Amino acid sequence: MPNIKLNLEYSGVTEKEILKYEQKVLKIYDNLVEKSKDENEFVGWLKLPSNYDRKEFERIKKAAKRIRKNSQVFIVIGIGGSYLGARAVIESLTSNFANLMPDDIRKAPQIFFVGNSISPNYVNELIDCIGDKDVSINVISKSGTTTEPAIAFRIFREYLESKYGTEEASKRIYVTTDKNKGALKQLADEEEYETFIIPDNVGGRFSVLTPVGLLPIAVAGLNIDKLIEGAKNGEYNFSDSSIKYNQCYKYAIARNILYEKDKEIEILANYEPKLHYFTEWWKQLFGESEGKDKKGIFPAGVDFTTDLHSMGQYIQDGTRNVFETVINIEKSKTDIKIKRDEDNIDGLNYLAGKTMDYVNKKAMQGTIEAHVEGEVPNIIINIKKLDEETMGELIYFFELACAISGNILGVNPFDQPGVETYKTNMFRLLGKPGYKKQ
Ligand code: PA5
Is 51 helix (H, G, I), strand (E, B) or coil? Predict the structure, then answer.
């Protein structure tokens, strides 16, 4: 049984409309299966949960154990697909305040992400924050040449070498990159850094279940066996050729039907702040995969109820080109009962005996009804709870949905030609050799 259940009751999309896509979607899936066998296609993620490199997986677990033992701080350097998946899973499944907790309670290094901007303040402030703590680094870049992580790595490599000396530093640097190509691979070979491979046929935004995500997630103390197990359940559940029961296909189809009805913006809404970076990961997955050839749904994200006090007005009442996809976590990890207060000055005694999660769920229900009334269709994705297995399944759910959806839309979901333009301009302005001034 899937841990994920789709509810289209508030979407305005009918079963009949969905079923019209049946043959098309089944063909797309078969095509993906065929392509997943071809090393030159970026569809390696499709069968990854049942077909990953077991030896490397064990090496990841060993490295994570070593890092957890000898480091109080773990710095993860990467951007885009080489960053967001690890952060999404770690922040969803660990304490909101993990980095602020005493070491003996957190039982893992503090984890910081760097190389995802070019802000000198961010780097300087991180170095101040680390102080004299013991540090290890994981630099992640498939191309091995991306500017943001390359600058950050140059800085932190030097930081480590001056702190520990070259030899000890080299034991504290872990590289995740292409198996043959790129400057990072060359450096890793020269310096003998422990290296993990990003498979050729898995693109950045589909790579969270490769060493890209798995090493940082394991260092955070999360169970990567269960994460993969969950993804494997997804691989099985969402290959169901009966579209009626395939939650993943239905989501992919429903969002395209809404797009056809001029709903050009999809807002992923959560009622759990831990999911903030999951939403960021989802935005990249869909934005980079579908936004091309002058088409595609614009993926946006909100954290409710926080953003009901900022974006709520627009969603309720602004331009009617949006739909929402709400992630509902059925069972909160913890809860708090609201107590009766003698004076009741805040007027909250009507909630006495109820829990915060109960109130949160009512806020969600009330918001869904209000937004639907305001002509914003709502797709609801119910997940049982936040744990490794569910997260693995949810990741797979969205990856497959994205591939199917992109194909329905008629774009190639696995390339990203548009991201090169800013780079070319930036390199020209910076005077990079080979980029001429105009
Ligand atoms: O999804 C993608 O392909 C991109 O977001 C890349 O992951 C990102 O640009 C980082 O690239 P690299 O891993 O080569 O440094």
Answer: coil
- Contact call for residues 99 and 133 (beta carbons, < 8 A): no
Ligand 1 atom nearest to CA at 83: 7
Q: What would the mean pLDDT of 233-242 be, rounded to a whole number?
A: 97
**Number of CB atoms found within 10 A of residue 56's CB:** 15
Residue 268 CA neighbour count, 13 Å, CB half: 25
Position 420 confidence tier, pLDDT thresholds 50, 70, 90:
confident
pLDDT in tens, 354-374: 999 999 999 999 999 999 999
Mutate to test the pocket of ligand 1, among 83, 84, 142 (most ligand atoms within 8 A of CB): 142
Say how far apart CA 79 and CA 113 lie, in whole Å.
9
- Is 290 tagged catalytic? no
**Where do the domains of the chain lie?**
4-35+242-409, 48-222
What are 30's two structure tokens?
A: 């078969």
- C-alpha–C-alpha distance, residues 308 and 302, integer Å: 8
Tokens 């305001």, residue? 374
Average pLDDT, the chain: 97
**Which CATH code of 3.40.930.10, 3.40.50.10490, 1.20.1250.20, 3.40.50.720 fits the domain covering 4-35+242-409?**
3.40.50.10490
Which atom of ligand 1 is the closest one to the Cα of 182? 14
User: Which residues have CB under 8 Å from 182's CB, separation 6+?
Assistant: 141, 142, 143, 144, 145
Same fold, 4-35+242-409 and 48-222: yes
Catalytic residue among 69, 309, 436, 437: 309
Burial 274-293 (b: 16+ CB within 10 A, else e): bbbbbbbbbbbbbbbbbbbe
Residue 216, CA distances (Å) to 33, 113, 308 in order: 29, 10, 32
How much distance in Å is there from the Cα of 80 to the middle of ligand 1? Answer: 5
> Ligand 1 centre from 203 Cα, in Å?
8
The verdict on whether 61 is a catalytic residue reads no
Are the beta carbons of 413 and 403 closer than 8 angstroms? yes
Q: Using CA positions, which residue lies closest to atom 8 of ligand 1?
A: 80
Is 309 an annotated catalytic residue? yes
Q: Which of 288, 270, 290 is nearest to 279 (CA)?
A: 270
Q: Which of 333, 339, 362, 423 is catalytic?
A: 423
Topology, domain 48-222: Rossmann fold (3.40.50)
